What we know:
Layout: H1 6-26, H2 80-91, H3 97-117, H4 120-124, H5 129-144, E1 148-167, E2 170-186, E3 192-195, E4 201-212, E5 221-227
Antiparallel strand pairs: 1-2, 2-3, 2-4, 4-5
Amino acid sequence: MENLDVTTVVFAIVAIFVAIKLRSVLGTRTGAERRPMDVPPPPGAAPTDNVVPFSPGRRPAAPTAPAPDRWRGFAEAGTPLAQGFDAIAAVEPQFNPAEFLVGSRGAYDMIVGAFAAGDSSALRRLLAPDALANFAGAIEARKAAGQTMKTVLVSIDKTEIVEARVTGREAWIAVRFAAKLISSTMDAGGGVVEGSATEVADHLDIWSFSRQLGSRDPNWLLTATETVH
Length: 229
């Protein structure tokens, strides 16, 4: 003890004092302490190991009602035409009038060409049975008379959907076409018996198309034609 340094004794006493003070302030860890950000469960709640995020997750967006003017440019809100579009879109939400008109223009071009050429096979893929029977009958009558037909589609100036409706699962859409054609029917000798081989004529027709909604076949078929005077 005679060799014990006084300074060492003093520092030892200070260290013991500090340790006692820290213990009184901070306490001791037993292993059962909660993490600083843990929230205690409510009384009676079952313990869980799930991690709950601090910020609640975003709830799925509730379905919204269609905008009343979603057919702008094609149909006025509240009109029978708009209601027809609504009925189609209720079964096939991807329905788009603009895309339909693009398809109808292509169908007009192909059907006019196939009819003039007497191509019943091509028409069979584009026409409903009743319309096909009418077109095929006209083609057969033309052949029986020894006549041929030539038609040139100069332009389709305007297409407009004028009617849309749903009956059961079948949708119907009527399109008014304003087009320019050069069309002539010739006899066996090549003489023109109807129309003109050179003159451009304006044609205004309403074509009706139909399709079973929900069908895997996306094609609309021509069901009827009407010339507008």
